Amino acid sequence: MEKIRVVIADDHKIIRVGLNAILQLENDIDVIAEAESGTDVIALMKTHVVDVILMDIDMGAPSGIETTHTIKSDFPDIKVLALTQHEERDYILKMLEAGANGYLLKNCGRDELRAAIHAVVNGDSYFSNSVSATLLKAITELKGNLKPASKSNSDLTQRETEVLQLIAQEYSNAEIAEKLFISVRTVDTHRRNLLDKLQAKNTAGLVKYAIEKGLV
Amino acid sequence: MEKIRVVIADDHKIIRVGLNAILQLENDIDVIAEAESGTDVIALMKTHVVDVILMDIDMGAPSGIETTHTIKSDFPDIKVLALTQHEERDYILKMLEAGANGYLLKNCGRDELRAAIHAVVNGDSYFSNSVSATLLKAITELKGNLKPASKSNSDLTQRETEVLQLIAQEYSNAEIAEKLFISVRTVDTHRRNLLDKLQAKNTAGLVKYAIEKGLV
DNA sequence: AGACGGCTACGCTAAAAAGCGTAGAGGCTT
DNA sequence: AAGCCTCTACGCTTTTTAGCGTAGCCGTCT
Fold first, then answer.
1. Element of type H or E holding A159
2. Are the C-beta atoms of residues A200 and A191 closer than 8 Å to each other?
3. How far apart, in Å, are the Cα atoms of B185 and each of A91, B182, B192, B199?
4. End-to-end CA distance of chain B
């Protein structure tokens, strides 16, 4: 069985040395090179066959994120394992968008490092503890912003829904009446029924509901 | 070193047997029980000490998702590794929201299974290949849906913002005046300035803006 | 045939918002 | 000191909503 060829990319020498030392202990992992900048990494790819890059996010320009992006478009088969101190959501999301296959915090243990490398080699993803927590939180939040759009707007009639949509589009009753070829009084009735059904106090409440339900 | 105590939950016996056979080969993993329903799983938790549950999503009521939810609220330390054929985004997201620590496809290999179990025991997350792809796609999409909402609400003064927030909360000018200890006329002026600045035709426009900017 | 829900519509009144203009007090900047 | 912005406030008019009630028409379900 071939060894897994790993490159360590970090602008801090201490980190490189540390990681290297840890990985020396693994008999199926081979650290074939170190890089101290994104430019180095990309250069290395052209001269070496690499399976996994341990990529620090915080390298100076080009950043780990940019570098990952480049790697992934030029060498899509190379796995990138992001290695960082940051748990900030934006970093994580950007790195993932760039195509990173896993995300480890720098204070991870030997076991985690090994497991993560194996995971990405298998084509899977590995996220360290707090990173996945952050990620899930992000997803939940983001989903919350999307989900209401798919709820069924249960108890409103079709006509009411139409009227509501137009209200939310800033049309006045008179304009709505014109658009729907009905009397202003009818629109008014619909509006009142809406206020009643949705327990809204005024237009603001109607618009909020409309937006929640994705009617706009 | 203690063995990792695993429970297999799936309503198909073949799957249970198969997984069991695979895990027998691991000398640090102990399959202590099998469950064929969510109810079984929860019952087992009360009588056994468990580290990891391999949870099928498709079990009948209660579903794997519901069961995971229950487990996670009653026994937060138990790790749940979702095991499924489905790569559908909604399934995945729901399972993650429920608190699953990892996500494997049923056609995963022995290596993946082992790695995933170790990952979740470590407190990390493991996502199989296609799952993480789906996940990333979802995140990217969702992020696109959120970004516009985080625009800076540039040109509004603080007071205007306050008034706008209250408007969006369905308060009338009179109520706002009372809350802010100012005259109704002042609120009216603010409201008019808002209409002007935001180029809104009426309350609906104001509320839409407020929601867009996340002021509600 | 009768009941019910949805859409239509009218009358009336009060309240609220929109559409103008104006303007002073206070703060900050130039 | 002059200029600009913010917050404050008032007057007046018109339009729009809100808050009641009522009611006919039509289709469906019972």
1. helix A158-168
2. no
3. 47, 8, 10, 20
4. 53
Distances (CA, A) of A109 to A32, A43, A118, A173: 21, 29, 14, 65
Strand C and A130 CB separated by under 7 Å? no
**Residue labelled with tokens 């290395």:** A44
- Count of C-beta atoms within a 10 Å radius of residue A111: 13
Confidence of residue A149 (pLDDT cuts 50, 70, 90): very low
CB B164 within 8 A of CB B215: yes
- Look at residue A84 in the predicted model and tell me its pLDDT: 80
Token digits for B36? 């064929």
Question: Strands B125-127 and A125-127: what pairing?
Answer: antiparallel
* Angle at alpha carbon of residue A137, lines to A110 and A126, rounded to 5°: 30
Amino acid at site A21? A
> In sequence order, which ranges of chain B are alpha helices (DSSP H)?
13-24, 38-47, 64-74, 89-98, 110-121, 129-146, 158-168, 173-180, 184-197, 203-212
The sheet that has B79-84: what strands, in order across it? A29-35, A4-9, A52-56, A79-84, A102-105, A125-127, B125-127, B102-105, B79-84, B52-56, B4-9, B29-35
List, for residues B88-100, the tens digit of each pLDDT value.
Answer: 767 777 787 788 8
Residues near B185 by Cβ (< 8 Å), separated by ≥ 6? none
Give me the residues of B, 88-117, that contact A with CB < 8 A. 93, 96-97, 101, 109, 111-112, 115-116
The C-alpha of B1 sits at a distance from chain A's nearest C-alpha, in angstroms, of 14
Count of residues for chain B?
216
**For A7-21, how does the pLDDT look when each residue is reduced to its tens digit (9 = 90+)?**
999 888 877 888 888
A12 with A60: CB under 8 angstroms?
no
Q: Residue A14 contacts by C-beta under 8 Å, 6 or more apart in sequence?
A: none
For residues B152 and B156, give the distance between their C-alpha atoms in angstroms, rounded to a whole number.
Answer: 10
CB B112 to CB A97 under 8 A? no
Strand partners, A82: A55, A103
Q: Which of A's residues 139-168 have CB atoms within 7 A of nucleic strand C?
A: 157-160
pLDDT > 70 in chain A, percent: 85
